[in-house]
Automatic annotation (TrEMBL):
It holds the Pfam family Nitroreductase. This is Nitroreductase. Coiled coil: none annotated. Keywords: Flavoprotein, FMN, Oxidoreductase. Residues 38-207 form the Nitroreductase domain. The keyword Zinc does not apply. The keyword Transmembrane does not apply. SUPFAM superfamilies: FMN-dependent nitroreductase-like (SSF55469). GO terms for molecular function: oxidoreductase activity.
Length: 230
């Protein structure tokens, strides 16, 4: 049984997909325009404290939540931190872990590879940026009866959602930085997350400061990252 807009597949409703069809030239222009925009994205560590409305953050997270996920389980939670006291606690805990990493955990090769980026254990942006988005992955879910249910391809799914989120942040005219202090379990404690959530990524979001500089780095050429099999 079906209508023009829906059918049943194994008893589940499927709706008609409507694609916006472009000419080949329009696709070329659209893809080039998007590349020219997203290629200007940079990881920024110098933030302004200039405020902006939470509804912009909500739109960014709605975009991230539209990402594909294993069995459509959507195994993520996006925690938005605006509270100054909580941001301060996160900064203090992150810097403690980062100091250990720079002094004990990272080997000489790793430290040498980071030198051209100008990074260190100090993370003032965690307090300066108007918002922090802490992304948690969910390896499993609880149903209403408290039973556990597995999620699938969790890291891949949450990684895709974070990619959508970073692109959306840039598209909105804001900047971010993928911050991954390791280990990140302190985020679960500070934000009082349930036992089925694990910290995945920390993203400060805001405007770049007027004196922001970024490393002069280049991406690999296309022929280094793409192989065509004809």
């Amino acid at each position: 049984m079906h209508t023009d807009d829906s059918i049943l597949v194994d008893g589940f409703k499927h709706i008609k997909y409507h694609q916006h069809n472009f000419s080949e030239n329009e696709m070329r222009v659209n893809s080039e325009t998007y590349f020219n925009n997203i290629s200007q994205r940079r990881s920024v560590r110098n933030f302004s404290n200039k405020a902006f409305s939470i509804d912009i953050i909500e739109n960014l997270i709605k975009t991230a939540s539209s990402a594909p996920s294993g069995a459509n389980k959507q195994p993520w939670t996006f925690c938005v931190v605006k509270n100054a006291k909580i941001k301060k606690r996160i900064r203090e805990a992150a810097e403690e872990e980062e100091r250990k990493s720079y002094s004990e955990r990272m080997n000489d090769e790793w430290l040498n590879d980071l030198k051209h980026l100008g990074t260190d254990a100090n993370k003032p942006f965690l307090e300066i940026a108007p918002y922090l988005i802490v992304v948690f992955k969910k390896p499993f879910e609880y149903d209403k009866q408290g039973n556990k249910h597995q999620n699938y391809y969790v890291n891949e799914s949450v990684g895709l959602a974070c990619g959508f989120l970073i692109s959306a942040i840039h598209n909105a005219g804001l900047v971010t930085l993928t911050h991954t202090p390791s280990p990140m379990r302190f985020l679960e404690k500070i934000l009082n997350r349930p036992d089925n959530e694990r910290a995945f990524l920390l993203l400060p979001v805001g405007y770049a400061s007027e004196d922001a500089y970024v490393p002069d780095i280049q991406k690999k050429n296309l022929n280094e990252v793409m192989k065509i099999y004809e």
